[in-house]
Amino acid sequence: MEIWFLVYYLAWTAAVLLLLWVSDIERFRNKILSRASLFGSLLIFSFDSYFRGNRGRDTQAYRDHYLFISENAGLMPDQGPYDFEVGYLYLSFIFGRLGFSFEWFSFFISAFSFVAICFMAYAFRVTRTKLFALVILSGFVFFSYNGLRQWLALLLFYLGVSFFYSQRKRFLVIIYWLGSVAFHLSSVVALATAVGFRAISRLDRLSTLLVYLISIPALVLIFYLSLDVLTGLLGYKVYLQRINILDYSGLGFGWLAQTLLNCLLVVVLVIKRDKFGLLEYLAIMWVFLYLLSPGDQSIMRLAVYFSFAQILVFSRVDYFRDTFSLFVSISYFGLMSLQFVAAILFNAHGAILG
């Protein structure tokens, strides 16, 4: 089964990225071909929702909740078997009442994810192919199954970030961020960090740098010391055991690979020579969080918002600017590819395919 699952996901990834690549290169030459390729990529990307199966404990919980709501017409959204956030309760309630199966509901989530990532590519001025390659190879496609509510919260949070510097569209930031909290309360951690950055960024350059050097480790330490309180408020069970969530299928290179990726991220922040903005701030938060507690599931669940920032930061790098940038880029994609293959083998268990 695992070998067929590996073949399927490698072929799926190649098809999605190939069509996106055609869409990107034909964007200004042949709009019909570009749009057709983009739509084809959306269908293939969303088609995977039919093969997610029961990968992960939470995936089964989402399926059970959806079926329970769908099959009991007299129930209200908050009368399901699980105490989810209001955003997910009403979204699943609406789709269930409209008669859609869980597979079609998952298809819609995947399609929304595709559109949201495409918009991020436009907002952050990167090619869709590059951003999707990083999102897929990073394993977020698997996280979007088992961490469905948090994945939606993450997407809405970064849609808000895309308008972060727009004075005229500040209301969109508020709407997206309220939506993020409605799908997963853990997003308040990312929101608080972003708001704090806004206050810090108004200082002069030297003061800002000093505050960065002090505030990031301080925030990480506060997260760690108040973990019991945070997880209690956000409805998490505190996992006392320390396990490496990236150590897929006992392969053992998860921690080393992620540590090297973090080192490359720091190098990227140095070679970019751009203004240090919100994305960079969030990415550095991820590095500190991972160094402090690489195997604590509770803190990693809170840190997933910052993990996504490193993808957006790296997607904005000019890979071919010089030899060193190319070397860093090849190393980064190589490490992420190894982790992706390991994630495929790990997630083969519980899948429908095979």
Mind explaining what this structure looks like?
- Keywords: Membrane, Transmembrane, Transmembrane helix.
- It comes from Marinobacter vulgaris.
- It holds the Pfam family EpsG.
- This is EpsG family protein.
- InterPro entries: EpsG-like (IPR049458).
- The chain has one domain (about 1-345).
- It has 16 helices and no strands.
- The chain has about 350 residues and is mostly helical.
- The protein has helices spanning about 1-25, 30-45, 55-70, 85-95, 100-125, 130-135, 140-145, 150-160, 170-185, 185-200, 205-225, 225-235, 255-270, 280-290, 295-315, 325-345.
- It starts with a helix and ends in a 7-residue tail after the last helix.
Structural class: mainly alpha
Terminal CA distance: 5 Å
Helicity range: over 70%
* Rg computed from alpha carbons, rounded to a whole number of angstroms: 20 Å
Element order, helices and strands? HHHHHHHHHHHHHHHH
- Beta strand %: under 5%
Number of domains: 1
How many helices in DSSP terms?
16
Mean pLDDT: 78
Residue windows where pLDDT falls under 50 for at least 5 positions: 236-251
Main pleated sheet: none
Shape type: globular
Please report the total strand number as a whole number: 0
Quick description:
This protein is mainly alpha-helical and 354 residues long. The chain has 16 helices and no strands.
List its traits.
globular, 354 residues, mainly alpha
Strand-helix topology:
Blueprint lengths: L1 H24 L5 H17 L9 H15 L14 H12 L4 H22 L4 H10 L2 H7 L1 H14 L8 H14 L3 H14 L4 H21 L1 H7 L20 H19 L5 H15 L4 H19 L7 H25 L7
Organism: Marinobacter vulgaris
Pfam family, one: EpsG
Protein name: EpsG family protein
